[in-house]
C-alpha cells in the first residue's frame, strides 16, 4: 500500500500547502499553490487535494472535471501538480496521477488529459512515464497529453 494519501483542503493542511517549495527553477512550469487554491475557490468543477505522507504535506494536485467544457482537453484531467522539492523522485507525483485517474473512473470517465510546457527541468518526462501521450494538439503554447484512466 502506498504511504501517500490525498486529503481535501483543510485548516490542518493549508499551512503546509502555503509553505510548499519546488526545486529552484521549476516555478516557471506551474502556478504557485496559493494561486491554484484561489482558482479552485471560484471554479466549481475544480478538484484540489493536498498530498500527505504521514502528517507532512508533500504535494498539491488539482484536477478539473468539467464534462461539458467545449474543449476536450479541459473535460477531465490534471490541471495543476506541485510536488515539494524535498519529496520529488519518490513516487508522489505518480501516486497523484493514479488518484486523479481513480476519481475520473468514479465519475465514469475513461480518458484523462494534462497540459505541460516543454523545457529543461520541465515535467514532460514525468507525464510520459505516467502513460500520457501527446495528442498532437498545442493549447496556449502547451503540449496536450492524454491517457486512459485505467490503473497502471
Ligand atoms: C513533475 C513532478 C510533479 C514529478 O513529481 P515526482 O513526485 O518527482 O515524480 P515521481 O517520483 O512520481 O516520478 C514518476 C516517474 O517519472 C520520472 N520523472 C519524474 N520527473 C521527471 C522529469 N522531470 N523528467 C523525466 N522523468 C521524470 C521518475 O523518474 C519516475 O520514473 P520511473 O517510472 O522510472 O519510476 C515534480 O517534479 C514537480 O512538482 N515539478 C515542478 C512543477 C511541475 O512541473 N508541475 C507540473 C505542471 S503541469
Account of the protein in words:
With 152 residues, the chain is of the alpha+beta class. The chain has one domain: Gcn5-related N-acetyltransferase (GNAT) (Aminopeptidase). Helices cover 24% and strands 33% of the residues. It has four helices and seven strands; from the N terminus they run E-H-H-E-E-E-H-E-H-E-E. The chain has helices at 14-19, 33-41, 92-106, 124-129, and strands at 4-7, 46-53, 56-65, 76-83, 111-116, 133-139, 142-148. It has a seven-stranded mixed beta sheet with strand order 1-2-3-4-5-7-6. Helix 3 (92-106) links the parallel strand 4 and strand 5. It is globular, with a radius of gyration of 14 Å. The mean pLDDT is 97. Coenzyme A (COA) is lined by residues 22, 26, 29-30, 81-83, 88-94, 116, 122-123, 125-126, 129.
Order of helices and strands: EHHEEEHEHEE
Number of strands: 7
Largest sheet entry: 7 strands, mixed
Give the count of helical stretches: 4
Report the mean per-residue pLDDT as an integer.
97
Give start-end ranges of low-pLDDT stretches.
none
- Number of folding domains? 1
Order of adjacent strands in the largest pleated sheet:
1-2-3-4-5-7-6
What is the CATH topology descriptor? Aminopeptidase
The radius of gyration is: 14 Å
CATH homologous superfamily title: Gcn5-related N-acetyltransferase (GNAT)
Amino acid at each position: 500500500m502506498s504511504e501517500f494519501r490525498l486529503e481535501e483542503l483543510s485548516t490542518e493542511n493549508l499551512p503546509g500547502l502555503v509553505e510548499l517549495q519546488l526545486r529552484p527553477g521549476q516555478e516557471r512550469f506551474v502556478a504557485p499553490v496559493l494561486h491554484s487554491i484561489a482558482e479552485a475557490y471560484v471554479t466549481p468543477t475544480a478538484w484540489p487535494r493536498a498530498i500527505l505522507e504521514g502528517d507532512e504535506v508533500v504535494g498539491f494536485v488539482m484536477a478539473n472535471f468539467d464534462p461539458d467544457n467545449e474543449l476536450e482537453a479541459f473535460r477531465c484531467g490534471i490541471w495543476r501538480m506541485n510536488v515539494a522539492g524535498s519529496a520529488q523522485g519518490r513516487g508522489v507525483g505518480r501516486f497523484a496521477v493514479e488518484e486523479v485517474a481513480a476519481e475520473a473512473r468514479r465519475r465514469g470517465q475513461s480518458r484523462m488529459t494534462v497540459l505541460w510546457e516543454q523545457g529543461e527541468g520541465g515535467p514532460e518526462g514525468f507525464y510520459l512515464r505516467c502513460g500520457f501521450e501527446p495528442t498532437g494538439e498545442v493549447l496556449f503554447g502547451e503540449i496536450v497529453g492524454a491517457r486512459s484512466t485505467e490503473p497502471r
